[in-house]
Amino acid sequence: TINVVNINTAGTMENIKLLDQGKVDGFIGQKDSIDSYASVNPTLVKELRENWITLYKEPVQLIANRKSGIKSITDLDSKHTVYVGKEGSGSESTWVRFMLANPDYKKVNTKNADQADALKAVIKDPNAVMFFVSGLNSAFTKAVDAIAATEGLRFVKINDRAITNSESTTGEELFSYAKIPAKTFPNLQKGWFFSRSTKTVATESVFVVSPKWIEKNGKEALDDLVSAVIDVQPKIYEAANGEL
Fold first, then answer.
1. What is the DSSP letter of 124?
2. Model confidence pLDDT, tens digit, residues 134-171
3. Helix H or strand E segment including 27
4. How many of the other CB atoms lie within 10 Å of CB of 2?
5. SS3 state at 108
6. What is the largest CA-CA distance in the chain?
7. What is this structure's pTM?
8. What pLDDT, on a 0 to 100 scale, did the predictor assign at position 243?
9. What is the per-residue burial (b if ≥16 Cβ within 10 Å, else e) of 152-181?
10. Phi then psi for 147, rounded to 5 degrees?
């Protein structure tokens, strides 16, 4: 058996830094954010890629004030501010990949903030939007949907082909088209008369183990760990994305 201690962090970029520093043995994180770390430690990212296990897909979620008139991510320009989560979060890293895919997004103002503060900003300012990556079973998104009708909030579709055409450092797909099915978050997805599906993109959430842990414990231990993760993979998916 393996004794697992969970550590709360700001997100994927902090996770991989902690692993690189030898402070954690593994983590769950976003595939696109791990790939971004190749500019810092390409050897580590290569080793992680050899052993990672895909757990589920995480859709990118963009929320705006209905008074903003923003319906698509391509509507964002220099008068807008996008809140991308805490410094070191996977959401922040994903936004950086979006800017690399489409330089037009570099015109948009960017701010770091936790989800609660970002939500307050969007409610108050029609030119503010919040950007985050999360499974659809997120308690936060459900809480936002509960106040979306009274506070005038809505999902913004992400339909930029430049994003889905972007590739990893090894030429792999980083983002795929996805849909948040209608009625998943009925208030955030409400159109003129009814809830509608929301076009977006998704990245993969992967489980990785430190090469140092593998070296210390051996290939047999890694095989046992991988088998255990694969066995519970359906439950992990359900926890992250419900029945979707």
1. H
2. 999 889 999 999 999 999 999 999 999 999 999 888 88
3. strand 26-30
4. 11
5. coil
6. 59
7. 0.89
8. 58
9. ebbbbbbbbeebbebebeeeeebbeebebe
10. -110, 0
